[in-house]
Write a structure and sequence with these properties.
Structural class: mainly alpha
Distance between the termini: 118 Å
Strand order of the largest sheet: 1-2
Number of helices: 68
Strand content: under 5%
Largest sheet: 2 strands, antiparallel
Radius of gyration: 44 Å
Number of strands: 2
Helix content: 55-70%
Length: about 1300
């Protein structure tokens, strides 16, 4: 129908060509838009959509053909207007054909994908059916088959079945790997049931490994793991984990399956639940088998299992504790290897932080196992034990750099730390130097080169820096940093606490005992002296004066020095005091510190050098003025410039003295130019096209000619005759301009070897021309000369060359910008270059100029602010970085704020700079008027406070070396507190007013009062930390401190710092109190609460604050470790057969290492006796053995030995019988003797339930098999009168002690 309509429309269009301009091909635009309305496809099924699309395609094709036919007519038959309409319709028809084709193609692809998915799903289902059929044909009629009794035909059949099963499972795995969607469509239970027969003992190792691999690929989410838990897999997994190293393929796959279950099926805790309170869907039998692998030292999968146990520990600590995994992890922490122990160290520090998880550890015993490598090092071989001592010292340092580790090790009167320090008192211990290095590292003491001189016993007065060090430190000033007030550093405050802890634990006493070992000092004792001296220096810097004074007394050392009765003691004491005094006297001389200010100071150590240089220059000028004509002419001849063109024969020293001295006299300069033509001959040497200077190699000895050229130009610019000579008589600038023109691609044919080629600039002294031009740009007359010879025009052309960035960088670096004019335009052009790398280099140079400039320059700041709007974010970040550093100066900050730059487009990159603006009244008013303050305050109140606390905790961990610092953004953190929005708001009066109006501080104070001692909810604890940082930042300014005093929040913070059970919260309070002590008023308030602030020599607080009673801050209440009850409390019906009792008793005794050998020999003998064959072939007895090893600790070889005792091959029928035994042998609750309740019980969190295998279902009620009418009846009498329940603990007797 549509085809006939199109034909008629086409004919009618040809008949009415020219009479109906509003019609195109007989169809109006309205009709066409209705036909090609794609919205009609919405809500239709695929079939209807295809019909509509095919109709659209047919109409569009007809229109296209009709339009092409009309355009093929003779030109006279179509008017111009009609031709344009037909061409428009043709173009529109082609576009519609393309649109419809794309829609049809997408539908075809969808259908193809659906067809592919259906095909793949059918293939997967076919493989599953194949596996199921193989499993049915593979089923054994025997309840306890033995591989040795099987006929050869059955063995051949088993081999064929196994091969077919492996092939089917491999193909199914390939499908699951390629098609993720198929995994979601398949029934987990169906796949597992089909794969379970492949896990039997009669299958090959590779077949079982493939089955585990298939099961691993079928689980995709939590629900699939739950379905998997309903299948009888536990005993297969237990058996596979018990295998020896010959079965590594199978073992690897079962461990991967367990890791997949942990990763996919673990129920993470709710955000408001306690830490480590999730659920891992693994039963206790599987966990105990897994722990046994992790415990076996020679197992190849030990490392993988330990890491997995650590992951499970952080998710579900109860499960690991029930299975005995915590003890295994603690032993690994103590014994190593280093890679695992360092990882476990961080895990246990996380466990110690929370009171709930901390209760799973025995205080004073468990975590202290990690110190045993140092505390138990006495008597062990130094060579073999040194690596372990170093790794343990690293772990100890890691513990002491975290709040949880430091406070935990300070328990019981610093017992653990005292044990570490006491190792320094053992004279024969060869690892004491490693322990000393640990203390150097903990206190962040950087060892210089001269430290080794001190340790070797040589006099420090004989030590001198090397020549390279002198050159490197020529601009260093030792007085600057000591006199300058240092910024607040959180790391310094933590080091102050460490010093108090170590001295309280007896570090100084231990060092003194180490000195007293011998009257003649050795390297170790001198290293201890160095540590004591550095510690006393640090105490003066970071501790309050009263505390530092107490440490400076070092009474033990002075008592030795004043002991006139014992000559050796006096020698030791006086030598120690002499060494410390020598160290302190020479420290300032040898420990150079970089200059932090570029302003020349009158009392600087460089002042004498500068004065001497000026005097030498004045003497040279004076000598030049006084030189007579004869002497001057003799000096000119002595240079040899007038006699030869070979510069190697010139007298360079005389030439340099002439240029720097006599030629500074205008009269002598005129004579050298006009009379002797000395300057003309000398300048010709520097001409580029003379190929003398420009062809010299770029080696160190030739660099002096570049310096000479710059000096010569300076001397010429000092006199009018020299300026006139350069302007009208010399060709140096003209030839330099021509040399630059050789590189211009629009300046004719380029030269084959231009003067400024890349090779010549890098290998010859050609680069020196850039330095000479830079010398000229320092003078106003020099800039005029460069303008005259169009040097700047050449610079502009060069800036467009992408391939000559070396020249552009050289120009930017050497030009002087002190005079306004073309040089600044050149820099501006480089800053806006079309090439990003040029803009980056120019921005870096501009930023360095600003930082090294003694005064603030408006033009440089404007240029740098322009870079904030660069299209490349790297340029913006670099400009922001330089602005942040420059704005440390209040003058520059006020200039930048006055320019009112817009920084919001930078996002997080510009946040720090905006916070700096807020610290000034002008900047705060500007940002408040733009609406930034209100908007940002709401963001910080709801979200960014949390981000700040996470950021600063990561920064602190990296600054204290608790975490490796390999990220760029964290390397910039040097311990200074990052700016906080609320802290910057409180620095101005207007900010305090807005903060009061918003009412945010009142909400902060209320939250701290309500949740200050929270120890369970991680979300509340994180928010508490963020609010504490906000309150501390507000209190770090004088205006903000008033908020804290009005709400009386400081006593509450102090209470949290001393009583909170979450150790990291205490650490947050410690740093926050340091912030509050940043002002004199805050330090005074804290002093009333026995927290003393550190002050500078001028009496100003430094932002460091420590408690006067340190034990009150670091003490935590003791706790009783949690005793968990696991599946081991499931009692079994007592045995009645003597043979079974004897076998089971021997199996139980295998868990006791003392009598395990006797028990194993007994079992081996019993196995050979005929009357016990039935016992070792009994499925119920086999279940009892499995139950025993699943509820008690057995090492891996013992577990393997027990399973090998039984002549039972594990298959589906045996597993079903084991499940029946689990129900039949379980002792009812009424028959279990009541026990006294434990002091501490661990109850699962509300709404949580331990994931169990179906093999360990709930204990059956005795009326379960009876009718519902007997529901409340008592248990059978036989069970009521049953003998006492047998305890499965190892049996032992005490022999040899009669009454």
């Amino acid at each position: 129908m549509s085809g006939h309509t199109a034909d008629r429309s086409h004919d009618g269009a040809r008949e009415r060509a020219g009479s109906s301009p509003s019609m195109s091909n007989g169809r109006t635009s309205t009709d066409q838009s209705d036909v090609f309305d794609f919205s009609k496809l919405d809500g239709k099924d695929v079939g209807e959509q295809l019909v509509i699309l095919n109709t659209m395609m047919s109409v569009a094709v007809r229109i296209k053909e009709g339009a092409e036919t009309m355009l093929g007519m003779h030109n006279s038959q179509l008017t111009e207007t009609l031709r344009q309409q037909v061409e428009s319709e043709l173009q529109m028809a082609r576009s519609r054909i393309e649109q419809v084709s794309r829609r049809l193609d997408s539908h075809r692809r969808i259908n193809d994908d659906r067809d592919d998915f259906r095909t793949v799903l059918q293939q997967a289902s076919g493989y599953i059916k194949t596996l199921a059929s193989l499993g049915r044909s593979y089923a054994s009629p025997s309840t306890s088959p033995s591989s040795s009794s099987m006929p050869s035909g059955s063995i051949y059949k088993d081999v064929e079945t196994t091969r077919a099963r492996v092939e089917a499972m491999t193909k199914l795995i390939a499908i699951l790997q390629r098609n993720l969607r198929v995994r979601y469509e398949l029934d987990v239970a169906q796949v597992v049931q089909a794969a379970i027969p492949a896990l039997s003992d009669r299958s090959s190792q590779f077949c079982r490994a493939t089955a585990y691999r298939l099961i691993r690929h079928i689980i995709v989410d939590v629900d699939s793991v739950k379905r998997l838990g309903e299948q009888p897999l536990d005993w297969y997994i237990v058996k596979s984990l018990t295998l020896d190293n010959k079965h590594t393929v199978e073992k690897e796959q079962v461990i991967k399956l367990i890791r997949a279950i942990v990763e996919i099926g673990s129920q993470r805790r709710d955000p408001h639940n306690t830490a480590c309170s999730g659920t891992v869907p693994l039963s206790e039998p599987v966990m105990r088998a897994f722990v046994a692998v992790a415990e076996q030292p020679d197992d190849p999968f030990r490392s993988m299992c330990i890491q997995t146990l650590a992951e499970i520990l952080l998710i579900d600590i109860e499960l690991v504790a029930k299975a005995g995994g915590i003890r295994v992890l603690l032993h690994t922490l103590a014994e190593g290897p280093m890679e695992l122990s360092s990882m476990l160290n961080a895990v246990f520090l996380c466990i110690v932080d929370s009171p709930r998880t901390r209760a799973f550890l025995a205080p004073g015993m468990d975590l202290e196992m990690g110190l045993s490598g140092v505390t138990d090092a006495y008597g062990k071989d130094a060579a073999e034990h040194s690596d372990r001592v170093k790794s343990v010292c690293k772990n100890i340092a890691c513990m002491l750099r975290s709040w949880s580790g430091l406070i935990y090790l300070c328990m019981a009167d610093f017992r653990a730390i005292r044990a570490i320090i006491d190792t320094l008192r053992i004279p024969s211990l060869e690892h004491r130097e490693t322990v000393l290095d640990m203390f150097f590292d903990l206190l962040n003491i950087k060892t210089s080169d001269w430290y080794q001189t001190f340790i070797n016993g040589r006099r420090l007065t004989m030590y001198h820096h090397s020549k390279q060090a002198k050159e490197h430190d020529s601009g260093l000033d030792a007085d600057i940093q000591q006199r300058q007030s240092e910024p607040l550093k959180l790391t310094d405050q933590y080091i102050a606490l460490l010093i108090l802890v170590f001295t309280k634990a007896g570090l100084l006493d231990a060092l003194t005992d180490m000195f007293a070992e011998a009257t003649t000092g050795n390297n170790l004792s001198r290293k201890g002296t160095l540590l004591m001296a550095e510690l006393l220096q640090l105490a003066n810097k970071v501790l309050p004066l009263s505390m530092a004074a107490q440490l400076q007394q070092i009474p033990d050392v002075f008592s030795l020095a004043s002991d006139y009765k014992d000559g050796e003691h006096r020698i030791i004491g006086t030598s120690t005091l002499s060494s410390i005094d020598s160290f302190n006297r020479n420290r300032a001389r040898l420990h150079t510190t970089p200059v932090t200010s570029n302003r020349p100071r009158a009392n600087s150590v460089e002042d004498a050098i500068r004065r001497g240089q000026r005097q030498v220059e004045q003497v040279k000028i004076k000598m030049g003025l006084q030189m007579d004509d004869k002497t001057f002419q003799a000096a000119l001849l002595e240079t040899q410039v007038m006699l030869t063109k070979d510069h190697n024969k010139w007298n360079f020293e005389t030439l340099q003295d002439l240029i720097e001295g006599p030629l500074l006299n205008p009269k002598r300069m005129e004579e050298a130019i006009k009379v002797s033509r000395f300057i003309r001959r000398l300048m010709s040497f520097f001409h580029p096209f003379s190929h003398r200077f420009s062809d010299m190699e770029r080696v160190k000895i030739n660099m002096r000619w570049v310096r000479l050229g710059c000096t010569l130009l300076t001397t010429l610019m000092a006199s009018p005759d020299g300026q006139r000579f350069l302007s009208s008589e010399d060709d140096l600038l003209k030839q330099i301009t021509r040399s630059f023109a050789q590189l211009d691609p629009f300046n004719g044919t380029p030269e084959s070897d231009p003067i400024f080629s890349k090779k010549r600039v890098s290998d010859t002294l050609t680069y020196g021309y850039l330095e000479m031009l830079g010398t000229l740009s320092k003078h106003k007359e020099g800039i005029e000369l460069m303008e005259k010879f169009k040097v700047f025009t050449a610079f502009y052309h060069l800036s467009e060359l992408r391939s000559r960035e070396d020249l552009i960088k050289g120009i930017i670096e050497n030009i002087d910008y002190s005079i306004d004019g073309h040089p600044r335009i050149v820099l501006s052009k480089a800053l806006t270059s079309s090439y990003k790398h040029i803009r980056l280099y120019a921005t870096n140079h501009l930023g360095s100029m600003i930082l090294h400039s003694p005064t603030a320059n408006t033009w440089t700041l404007r240029l740098l602010l322009t870079q904030l709007y660069d299209p490349a974010m790297e340029v913006c970040e670099m400009a922001t970085h330089f602005l942040e550093e420059a704005c440390e100066s209040m003058d520059i900050l006020q200039l930048v704020v006055a320019m009112q730059p817009t920084l919001e487009h930078l996002g997080d990159v510009g946040q720090t700079l905006l916070l700096k603006f807020m610290s000034t009244p002008m900047g705060f008013r500007y940002l408040f008027d733009t609406g930034y303050i209100d908007r940002e305050m709401d963001i910080w109140f709801h979200d960014r406070n949390i981000s700040y606390v996470i950021q600063i905790e990561i920064f602190l961990a990296k600054a204290l070396d608790f975490l490796p610092s390999d990220d760029y953004e964290t390397k910039t953190f040097d311990g200074v507190v990052p700016p906080h929005f609320y802290g910057e708001v409180a620095k101005t009066d207007l900010g305090c007013q807005i903060l009061h109006e918003k009412g945010h501080f009142s909400e902060f104070a209320l939250f701290i009062r309500q949740h200050g001692l929270e120890s369970e909810d991680p979300e509340v604890i994180l928010k508490l930390k963020s609010i504490l940082w906000a309150v501390g930042s507000i209190g770090s300014s004088a205006g903000g401190l008033l908020f804290l005093e009005e709400d009386e929040i400081i006593p509450v913070i102090l209470e949290i710092a001393e009583q909170s059970l979450v150790l990291s919260v205490r650490g947050t309070c410690f740093f926050v109190l340091g912030l509050i002590s940043s002002t004199p008023q805050g330090a005074e308030v804290l002093d009333d609460y026995d927290w003393e602030a550190t002050v500078s020599p001028l009496g100003l607080p430094t932002g460091l604050c420590v408690p006067q009673d340190i034990e009150k801050f670091i003490s935590i209440p003791p706790w009783e470790p949690i005793q968990l009850r696991g599946d081991g409390d499931l009692r079994l019906i007592p045995l009645s057969s003597p043979e079974e009792i004897e076998v089971h008793t021997a199996i139980s005794n295998l868990s006791n290492s003392v009598i395990a050998n006797t028990a194993s020999r007994s079992l081996a003998k019993l196995k050979t006796r005929p009357e016990y064959q039935a016992v070792f072939s009994s499925v119920p007895m086999f279940y009892r053995a499995l139950h025993t090893i699943s509820t008690s600790r057995y090492r891996l070889p013992v577990r393997r030995f027990i399973l090998d005792l039984f002549d039972i091959d594990l298959d589906l029928d045996i597993v079903k019988q084991l499940a029946e035994c689990a129900k039949e042998l379980a002792l009812p609750p009424a028959a279990v003797e009541p026990e006294e309740p434990a002091e501490v019980k661990s109850e699962p969190a509300p709404g949580r339930s331990r994931a169990k295998s179906v093999l360990f279902a709930a204990r059956p009620r005795w009326h379960a098999s009876e009718s519902d009418e007997e529901e409340d009846g008592p248990p059978p009498k036989a069970l009521q009168n049953a003998p006492p329940v047998m305890n499965l603990r190892p049996q032992s007797m005490v022999v040899g002690f009669g009454d």
